[in-house]
Design brief:
mainly alpha, 40% helix, 88 residues
Amino acid sequence: MNMTVVSKMRLGAAIVGGGAMIALGGMAVYSIQGADVTASGDSGGASPVTTTTPPTVPAVAKAVPSITGPAPLYAGEAPNSNPQAAIP
């Protein structure tokens, strides 16, 4: 056979083998954990009804920033400043 054909067959075999390994890993996880872990919730019957009352007052009345005014600038960030200046 031609080397190109052989290399393509090897690539195809590697892809099929990798897919088989992933499938076997998934089946192993399913068999170890069982169906009760992989399925969630109740599969039959009516779901329980829960009612909640909304809060009368909000948890935070109004957000207030702790720092007001312009942001502090470091040496070299302020307009008309020397970027080569030493940091105080």
